[in-house]
Amino acid sequence: MTGFKTPLKIAGGVALASLLLSLPALGQDAAPAEEAAATLSEGVSADVVFILNSFLMILGGILVFWMAAGFAMVEAGMVRTKNVSMQLLKNVSLFAVACLMYYVIGYNLMYPLGNWAMGSDETGGYLGAFGIAILEAVGITADGADDFSYAATSSDFFFQVMFCATTASIVSGTLAERIKLLPFLIFTAVLTALIYPIQASWKWGGGFLDSQFGFLDFAGSTVVHSVGGWAALAGVILLGARRGKYNPDGSVNAMPGSSMPLATLGVFILWMGWYGFNGASQLAMGSVGDVADVGRIMANTNAGAVGGALAALIATAIIYKKVDLTFVLNGALAGLVAITAEPLTPGLGTASLIGAVGGLIVVFSVPLLDRLKLDDVVGAIPVHLLAGIWGTIAVVFTNPDATLGGQLISIIIVGIFVFVVSFVVWFILKSIMGLRPTAEDEDLGLDKAEVGVEAYPEFK
């Protein structure tokens, strides 16, 4: 062992010298050492910022993808047994269609990066660029990154495509149990290729709602959730209610869902995914402030859901003398939607109150829809459209940069655009191929009539 002492002493001396060299210099050598350390820090921090920002969007994208499972479980639990496989098939298929259409058309329409087909960054863009999404080259360096000061293009696309698919998922549950698969998927293609990205570009792509009206929508109470709600509302009006849902005298026949455990599981999955939906919408994690803000956003997101669930629980207990689980589940989701427009600036108490109003909106608007004979199977119109409108207005209470006029005019513009275009598309599909299955197929159930695979083949 003695033969190793000399090499060990040398290695130890080298290590000690390296350690001393790495420490701040003292006295007259302090300034040059600080300058060198600052230069090194700047070089490292640029890489680290790029990596952390990209990682935030990759992780956020994974969480938002998980929301697709949440939508599928909520819908599977809320529909009747004979239609469960159809809802699961729609959710898998719409996700695939949305991702493909966003790649082929939607991404560049939504983020034209100044290359507007109509308008400009200076005057306000109206229609983005046409072209497929293109990722950065394999194994890029800092010099090869599209925007080294921000994040990888691939991480940005991955995050944004999940938002696009979420919009389509909202429509699926509203129109459940009485729409054929093919027209639904064609509408999904139009929604995710054109309708969603065009209106999203007006805010998140730097378009005219952002530049002219100062519209604020942090993570999409309007841009995502209300858009899905408007598209669903147009479809409901043209599609009509499920057979047997409403009696001639206007009374409502209850059509209980197949599985409350599945619906509850779906809500918890959505609740979890929302931390990525809102938290990663900070789009930056490369500084102390950014990381603190991501944590603040996630805490407020949770508070919004809590407020919505508790408000729905208390309201149904008072009104119906019993607590309705479906209202509480949708109350939590409405609270999440409501806080999505501005999850950063409120405190926990205010975030809870914003969510609570969302929960109350669900309790009072579901019976209103039934009086109007608008059959929304899962309650997506109250949750995503109405709570989304409320959340977008509520931004003015916590963010001093928001104006009531700017928020309202933006809500109206987006609403008119999405509803009118969606109505036209639904109407064309209804005229050409029809939206509904036959009465016999609807009574039989779409699992047998269209899918050919029953979710519960042993249940008769």
Give a verbal description of the structure.
The chain is mostly helical and 460 residues long. It has helices spanning 5-22, 30-78, 84-110, 153-174, 181-203, 208-213, 221-239, 260-279, 288-320, 325-340, 348-371, 380-398, 404-432, 439-444, 446-451. The chain is globular, with a radius of gyration of 26 Å. The model is unreliable at 1-44 (pLDDT under 50).
In short:
This protein has 460 residues and is mainly α. Helices cover 69% and strands 0% of the residues.
Write the layout of secondary structure elements.
Elements: H1 5-22, H2 30-78, H3 84-110, H4 153-174, H5 181-203, H6 208-213, H7 221-239, H8 260-279, H9 288-320, H10 325-340, H11 348-371, H12 380-398, H13 404-432, H14 439-444, H15 446-451
Helix pairs in contact: 2-3, 2-4, 2-8, 3-4, 3-5, 4-5, 4-7, 5-7, 5-13, 7-12, 7-13, 8-9, 8-10, 9-10, 9-11, 10-11, 10-12, 11-12, 12-13
